[in-house]
Design a protein that fits this description.
This protein is of the alpha/beta class. The protein has helices at about 15-25, 40-50, 75-85, 105-120, 145-155, 165-170, 185-195, and strands at about 5, 30-35, 55-60, 65-70, 90-95, 125-130, 160-165, 180, 195-200. The protein has two domains: about 5-80, TusA-like domain (Translation Initiation Factor IF3, 2-Layer Sandwich); about 90-200, DsrEFH-like (Hypothetical Protein Ychn, Chain: A).
Length: about 200
């Protein structure tokens, strides 16, 4: 089957992923090439295609990223994997939309968010996802006091999802040092699948 091509340049998050999802769900796609114009969209589309059972590669030319993919496993196998994940034990997602906790004093707020993240390890295996949005993405970049604790959480098996749109907004995309760049479709899906969502915004 001929390679399908999809031009998502100029589309804001999460539309490149949604367009890609629409094409894949239309069926019959064995190879797909997606054009995007920013690193966050490149990572988001690439991760989505990998989750859908595609082998993914990247190239860049003149500020345009091409995400090339070819199917590597059957849709049936993918579906079985998703069903198995849904049947796993209790999963807690923590959504963090700030780089400080509470209002009243910013210095105290930063100490509190540091203590909160450092204590998340006590959730054990139930801590499934940590989602960083808006000011929360500042916790995952170089020179952040919270970076070591987030890296420990990731090493222990919690998936750290960092909003790509937010990183771009703050000019921090290249400074991210932990976690996977994510988009709103991923975030909504995580909240749907989680047994419990704890939100700090």
């Amino acid at each position: 089957m001929a390679e399908r091509k999809l031009d998502c340049r100029g589309l804001a998050c999460p539309h490149p992923v949604l367009r890609t999802k629409e094409v894949i769900e239309g069926g019959g796609v064995e190879e797909l090439s997606v054009l995007v114009d920013n690193p966050a969209a490149k990572e988001n589309v690439g991760r989505f295609l990998s989750q859908m059972g595609f082998e993914v590669s990247f190239s860049e030319q003149g500020g345009t990223f091409e995400v090339k993919s070819a199917r590597k496993q059957s849709a049936e196998a993918l579906g079985a994997g998703q069903k198995q994940e849904r049947g796993e034990s209790r999963k807690i997602a923590v959504l963090i939309g700030t780089d400080r906790l509470g209002t009243g004093d910013d210095t105290l707020g930063k100490k509190l968010i540091f203590n909160f993240i450092d204590t998340l390890m006590e959730m054990g295996e139930e801590l499934w996802r940590v989602i960083l949005v808006n000011g929360g993405v500042k916790l995952a970049v170089e020179d952040s006091d919270n970076l070591p604790a987030l890296q420990r959480l990731e090493k222990e098996g919690a998936l750290i999802l960092v909003c790509g749109t937010c990183l771009n907004y703050f000019g921090l995309f290249e400074k991210k040092r932990v976690g996977s760049t994510t988009n709103m479709l991923d975030i909504v899906t995580v909240m749907q699948l989680a047994d419990k969502v704890i939100s700090l915004t």
